[in-house]
Amino acid sequence: MPSIVPNNRLVFNKVPTGYPVPGETTRIDTNEKIDLDAPLNGGVLIKVVVVAIDPYLRGRMRDASIKSYAPPFLLGEPITNFGVGLVIRSENPNFKQGDRVYGTFEFQKYVIKHDTSNLIVLKNEEKLPWTAYLGVCGMPGQTAYIGWKLYAQAKKGETVFVTTAAGPVGSNVVQIAKSEGLKVIASAGSDEKVEFIKSLGADVVFNYKKKDTLEALKELGHGIDIYWDHVGGKMLEDALSAMNDFGRIVVCGAIAGYNNDKPYAISNLHYVLTKRLTMHGFIVLDLLKDHIQEFYSEYPKRITSGQVKHHEQIYKGLEGAEQALLDTLKGDNQGKPVAVLSEEDL
Amino acid sequence: MPSIVPNNRLVFNKVPTGYPVPGETTRIDTNEKIDLDAPLNGGVLIKVVVVAIDPYLRGRMRDASIKSYAPPFLLGEPITNFGVGLVIRSENPNFKQGDRVYGTFEFQKYVIKHDTSNLIVLKNEEKLPWTAYLGVCGMPGQTAYIGWKLYAQAKKGETVFVTTAAGPVGSNVVQIAKSEGLKVIASAGSDEKVEFIKSLGADVVFNYKKKDTLEALKELGHGIDIYWDHVGGKMLEDALSAMNDFGRIVVCGAIAGYNNDKPYAISNLHYVLTKRLTMHGFIVLDLLKDHIQEFYSEYPKRITSGQVKHHEQIYKGLEGAEQALLDTLKGDNQGKPVAVLSEEDL
Fold first, then answer.
1. Which end of chain B is more exposed for a tag (fewer CB within 10 A), N or C?
2. Which residues in chain A are contacts of B283 at CB distance < 8 A?
3. Which of B262, B266, B276 minimises the CB distance to A283?
4. Which CATH number fits domain A4-135+310-345: 3.40.50.1820, 3.90.180.10, 3.90.230.10, 3.20.20.100?
5. CA nearest neighbour of A182 among A155, A218, A146
6. What digits encode the pLDDT tens for the residues B287-345?
């Protein structure tokens, strides 16, 4: 086997105005090479096995001068996101050949990591498929579990409303809420997704493309104690209208705003006062240091026991990654999208 | 002294469309009488000495079919609000003649209370003027002290922005924040108010009628960690733009919306997510049960020691009460407005 091999990668090529365009806003660069036998200078050589695709990546595909919570992608540089990799060779005593590691990776065949502060060796005693560490036990599961624990202040018998409930975070929230004895109202954008959410145990599920959200909430005849918001915009406004006094709004996404230049303006924010609401915006990355160990010790066993079901959509290669990003922003995916870059190591 | 005497009162007469109109949306009813010697059936006969005037009263002057956090006033019935009364006669063992009581009173010369659950006998060991129990030690002071304690999560060296900072709540928030070592940015609607707020120790104060709020915040060159919101609407939007990551927004008023049929729509609520903000709406009434004893043991002594300054505007009689309500909604008052109904008992 030659030691110098191609190191194909997915590069950020142009800032999208609306949805990203495969081949235009991103492109596959096949010119890059890597010498697998070269000294690592204390680093770790990792083969990227699978990467996660998340809606928030759209927010990083921006002009680099615009500030936001996640750093912008740089034009000509690879897209990056959470992934699972396989250690090929290591000059760092904390990692050894054959280790599976979770962390942030370039969308590229091989990477060399010197800063290993965000790499975690996955023990996987539960023998979950590695893709699960990007979905139900990855950022989406972490978001649902940690955000719910810290901000929902849920009490048995209360009602929670979850939007994009068929999504990777939403489907976890639905199941966590049911396991704690709440009534779950959920919405999604296709009948197929509606059926999937029902199969997770949600009490009332509707297709927001066929039924107005506010009308659907009103028909239920009672209010919402917790709104788990992935969307923002009009749906947040509708939820504000339907909130009960002392309700909690947990904001972990604003997908409605990701592809729009002109954001929807919310005219009923006074309900925060009159209904004495609490609203928490959070990004799970800020919370991992204090909560990831508890998560890893608690959540994977809910998967193996069958208490938490999950649903993945597997895309193949860098072309798959491009398509997956578009699909997840359009809501065309079913379940957590992941892109497998090395099938033989899955 | 005849036992049957006039019992003049201020009656809710018509739902205002914008600002209330003295003599039209409220009117003084001079036909009511009371027999001061009649049996009380276990009640307490109280002379109303002074009542508070607050912006939230406008919200109660609504069509009774509209739900909101505070009950609507009923047409033909008296306006009510917090006040201090003097017990004239009591058939309830918890109250005796001469007691000063804090609670909710009709805007009326005399009232008979059977439900005494919200009446508190004021010991007033600090010998504060009774009017102080409606302002700096009344609902406004309670709102500032308890809301700050529960929701601001203030750390020394942080920056707080307070709107309507010359108002009864705002002026307390400014002083509490300074006493805890924060930088205080404040705004108000007149140069006179700006000077008053400066005299309370605020670091940067501007007149929002002369200077755009967002521009003023930008000029300061750094963000806000805590926004204390009395206003909502455009000012809340401006504050959202200027918030630092992990900022807290404490919402205890929405005066911008009280007199407008069409509320201002907020287009940057996505900052709640991207800046990981927390927003708390609260009404201090919900919190009194757990926190009023601590408040009464802690706050009055800050007044007598001079640590907290306060400022009242005293209106006289029921006519004064009507005018005070209009002034406070227009922002024409200076300091906490109170209406004295019985000068000889002050």
1. N
2. 273, 276
3. B276
4. 3.90.180.10
5. A155
6. 998 999 899 999 999 999 999 998 899 999 999 999 999 999 987 877 789 999 999 99
